[in-house]
Amino acid sequence: MWDRRLVRLALLQQLRAVYGIKVKSGRGQCDRRRHETAATDTAGKIFGVPFNVLPHSVVPEYGHIPSFLVDACTSLEEHIHTEGLFRKSGSVVRLRALKNKLDHGESCLASAPPCDVAGLLKQFFRELPEPILPVDLHEALFKAQQLGTEEKNKATLLLSCLMTDHTTDVLRYFFNFLKSVSLRSSENKMDSSNLAVIFAPNLLQTSEGHEKMSANTEKKLRIQAAGMFQILSRKRYRPCWVLMVSVLLHH
């Protein structure tokens, strides 16, 4: 069994030495412990609670994925052709009512309009206690996307290995769903670039509202999210432990 601290150190050294990318020391562990301690106060809720207390479903090839995420993506797959999916806003009143029902254990997605389900999906990521893409990796992800194609892919894959296995599994599942959406862009007008712009503020949980976002910030967010989307949505995505072994053997 690999010592995860040793693996992390090796990955950080590789990123710094080969690609000139330094990863900031995060405060995630402390925050995670605090959120886990407060988990008893969030029993049954879907929004605003950490992954570890959410109901999960086992999805082949991905593992344990939050049940709400699976249900929402499954529901939207039937409406994947809808023009402006994720771009068009759902009803604020209906979203509030749907969120309340979900937090009280009611199944209501099947009968909800697709734009409302899409809105709930964005809200789900936006209200996580911590962004699913760890804060300490945000700047590193942006720097990785400035590299040449091959180096960019390798550096982004190394950065993905710094995330927990569960986080990577959830992102792979969700990004593959978004890839399916982008493949129908001739109908829904939502290509991968548009999806990255829309989801980056939610996955990264930026302090700036989407409406107030500057062009420079929007570009940076799109680049960060697009990098992870490109790597994790690949069918031939290499498990991180394979890369970890390779890195450790060269140290």
Automatic annotation (TrEMBL):
One of the GO biological process terms: signal transduction
Superkingdom, natural source: Eukaryota
GO molecular function terms listed in the Swiss-Prot or TrEMBL record: GTPase activator activity
Rho-GAP domain sequence ranges: 49-229
Keyword Membrane: no
Key word Translocase present: no
Signal peptide: 1-20
Keyword terms, alphabetized: Signal
InterPro entries: ARHGAP11A/B, Rho_GTPase_activation_prot, RhoGAP_dom
Name of the protein this chain belongs to: Rho GTPase-activating protein 11A isoform X2
Organism whose genome encodes this protein: Puma concolor (Mountain lion)
Organismal lineage: Eukaryota, Metazoa, Chordata, Craniata, Vertebrata
